[in-house]
Design brief:
This protein is an alpha+beta fold. The protein has 16 helices and 14 strands.
């Protein structure tokens, strides 16, 4: 009864693998037929699929070349715009000190082109209504008044023509309804009129705002830095405004601070809007007349620096001219892909030939394992293309090809461990279980190093290499999964068949062919007299065993043989 337990366990594990595979195919089917956003073929990146390349030439208002810092921030803003449009695997780089190169796979519509070409737009607008409280303040330290509930914020009633940016007369029933129905996840036009109210969301899409007309733009910011408050030690963002900004912001701060003292939340908030998204909406805590406001809240070093960069370069004094807009052909990439696939097939064929020559019928287990891994990798890549925007580049394909060799290594380690157990004279079923116990530790360690290397490479490498690192790490994890849930259970079932369990000479588990001629650690079983073929096999097995015997074991065997001959001599003398 106990002997059948591993077989039952193996069948359950293989059934679990079948269920996992079916679930993965079901998930992708939902994406294909339900949401119509997935596909049964992996998405290709720019170098394989072709796409669009737009080269933008940046110039400052005075005609001088922009600094590298300005170019980098402009490229970051353009990347945010491209990501917001749903284009994955876009490559955005700076070039030549004044150019920004945007490469996107596939065809690009005119709306996306316009979004890329537009200059960054940072606006200062007063908050009229909000659906969430602010977690930051601007100005002097102090406690803000209690924040009203969303229902209370929507009770403002227009009484006259608006007089300023935070006048409640801007709030109409229509705008209230539009605010409540506003979908932060949908695409919206970021080029709203500056003299009209604007509905916008924060960067996380968790808060919605009805904002008054623009009262200042980002050009009034001379500098924005992140630092620690000398009193509290908290991270803050410190602004410096130019002369015009100081004057206008002073008037705005007095108005909003008066609203705060009167308990008119959220009309005591001032929103910084970048490309139609609210990046911060702090509560005004004081009248700030020196042009040096400070934003504090739940910041750490990273978030405070990010906000400072957005405010500092959110309205870059740059204009972009389209130097060229070309369609990149995928012909070269297709040729390289074909060459890569051919190389992969050759590698797969060599692995199959080596496996069959070295392990006889056992080699088919390696081939089947690689086949199952290929199926799982393919469907997972399709799902990731749908859910994460993964696109296969030439580097990604190279990572998949390299994984074939890494996968074969796992099986070779396992099979050699099994053979070692057979050479020690164990039964085949016991050799499979003991070999598994010894092999899996080695494989887990080696695969952990592979995954760690892939993670480090993905973090530190250039964008062109990240695809290689990602697919290498992904296939390494799948390799371990297949090793545990397919290869070992299959071996547990095969060794209970007559062909493999009986040690057929073509099975790859023939004990005599492997040198399993030990009686102990230092004694050999004598070759039995029989047919010439039988004697030849025993001699070959004995030679194999002699090669694997350690020096210490040989000395011990020689000592036993010497003592044995002396004892025999004494007996004869007697």
């Amino acid at each position: 009864m106990a002997s059948s337990t591993p077989a039952r366990h193996a069948r359950r594990v293989l059934l679990g693998l079948l269920i996992v595979t079916a679930v993965l195919f079901g998930i992708n089917a939902v994406g294909v037929y339900g949401f119509q956003k997935s596909s049964w073929t992996p998405e290709l990146a720019l170098d394989l699929q072709g796409g669009t390349q737009i080269i933008l030439s940046a110039q400052t208002e005075d005609g001088a070349d922009p600094s590298q810092e300005q170019l980098d921030q402009a490229a970051a803003i353009i990347r945010q715009r491209v990501d917001a449009s749903g284009v994955a695997e876009a490559d955005i780089t700076t070039e030549g000190g004044s150019n920004i190169v945007v490469q996107m796979p596939g065809a690009v519509d005119q709306e996306t082109r316009d979004r890329i070409n537009a200059s960054a737009k940072l606006e200062f607008r007063a908050v009229l209504l909000a659906t969430a409280p602010s977690n930051s303040v601007i100005g002097e330290d102090g406690k803000s008044t209690p924040y009203p509930t969303p229902a209370e914020t929507l009770n403002a009633t227009p009484t006259a023509e608006p007089t300023d940016g935070s006048d409640p007369s801007w709030v109409t029933e229509k705008r209230q309804a539009e605010l409540l129905a506003y979908d932060c996840s949908a695409e919206h036009d970021s080029n709203a009129p500056t003299d009209e109210p604007l509905i916008a969301c924060d960067q996380d899409g968790t808060a919605k705002y009805l904002l008054g007309p623009m009262e200042l733009d980002g050009t009034v910011i001379d500098d924005a830095t992140a630092g620690r408050d000398q009193t509290s030690g908290a991270w803050t963002v410190n602004l410096e405004l130019d002369g015009h900004g100081t004057e206008v912001f002073g008037e705005i701060s007095q108005r909003l601070n008066a609203n705060r003292l009167a308990g008119l939340s959220p009309r005591d908030q001032f929103a910084f809007v970048l490309d139609g998204t609210v990046i911060s909406a702090p509560i005004m805590q004081a009248a700030i007349l020196n042009g040096k406001p400070s934003i504090s809240g739940t910041f750490d070093q990273e978030t405070s620096k990010a906000l400072a960069d957005q405010l500092r370069y959110g309205a870059l004094p740059l204009s972009f001219n389209v130097e060229s807009s070309d369609t990149i052909s995928a012909t070269l990439g297709s040729q390289q892909l074909q060459i890569g696939l051919i190389a992969g097939l050759i590698g797969l064929g060599l692995v199959a030939v080596y496996s069959l020559l070295s392990y006889r019928a056992l080699g088919w287990v390696i081939i089947a394992s690689i086949g199952v891994m290929g199926v799982l990798t393919y469907i997972i890549v399709c799902i990731l293309a749908w859910r994460m925007g993964l696109r296969l580049s030439l580097a990604s394909v190279a990572g998949l090809i390299v994984s074939i060799g890494f996968t074969a290594d796992s099986f070779i380690v396992y099979f050699e461990r099994i053979r070692d157990e057979l050479r020690d004279g164990k039964a085949i079923t016991a050799a499979v279980e003991d070999g598994w116990g010894r092999a899996k530790r080695t494989i887990y360690i080696s695969k952990s190093i592979n995954v760690l290397a892939a993670v480090v490479l993905y973090i530190l490498a250039d964008a062109t290499v990240k695809g290689f690192a990602f697919t290498l790490g992904l296939t390494t994890l799948i390799d371990v999964f297949i090793f545990v849930i397919f290869t070992h259970p299959v071996m547990q079932l095969l060794v209970r068949t007559r062909f493999f369990g009986g040690g057929h000479r073509l099975s790859g588990l023939d004990p005599e062919a492997l040198g399993a001629v030990y009686r102990g650690r230092s004694q050999y079983r004598e070759a039995q007299i029989g047919s010439s073929g039988r004697v030849a096999r025993n001699r070959g097995a004995r030679g194999e065993a002699e090669k694997r015997q350690t020096i210490a074991e040989r000395k011990r065997a020689e000592a036993l043989a010497t003592h044995g001959s002396k004892d025999a001599g004494k007996d004869s003398d007697a």
